[in-house]
Amino acid sequence: MKNDRLNFKDAEKYPSFGDIPLTVIMGTSEVRYAGIKKSSIKDEFRQLVNEGQRELLKLSSDSRLMNAENSGHLLQINDKELLIKEINKLLKNQYFY
User: Fold this and answer.
1) How many whole angstroms separate alpha carbon 52 and alpha carbon 73?
2) Whether 30 contacts 73, CB under 8 Å
3) DSSP label at residue 64
4) Residue 33: HSE in the Cβ half-sphere, 13 Å Cα cutoff
5) Nearest-angstrom CA–CA distance, 18 and 34
6) Which of 70, 67, 57 is nearest to 20 (CA)?
7) Where are the alpha helices (H) located in 19-73, listed in sequence order?
């Protein structure tokens, strides 16, 4: 918990990334919600996750949202090709030279 508090405190110092490119990759597979049995709770959770991911887009004026259709939360396992493609794309960007 102590590290979480420090991480949140540190994050508050940086409310914006300016125009640094930002890609938010959101897992959209139903597996993300598989443990939630009640449909109304599942729908509410899905909406909160979507809103949270879209909120991250506000961190940069150069942001975009991508859906990882094969993933819930572990896109590095289920959508690794998509992740690798996005990392390579960002590394080729002028900000990383």
Assistant:
1) 14
2) no
3) E
4) 18
5) 36
6) 57
7) 39-56
pLDDT digits (tens, 9 = 90+) for 33-84: 888 999 999 999 999 999 999 999 999 999 999 999 998 888 899 999 999 9
Would you say the pTM of this structure is higher than 0.85? no
Are 59 and 52 in contact, with CB atoms under 8 Å apart? Answer: no
β-bridge mates for residue 66, sequence order: 25
Least confident segment among 15-24, 68-77, 87-96: 87-96
Maximum CA extent, the chain: 49
The pLDDT score that the predictor gives to residue 95 is: 57
Asked if residues 83 and 90 have their Cβ atoms less than 8 Å apart, the reply is: no
- How far is 61 from 22, CA to CA, in rounded Å? 9
Q: Provide the pairing of β-strand 22-27 with 63-68.
A: parallel
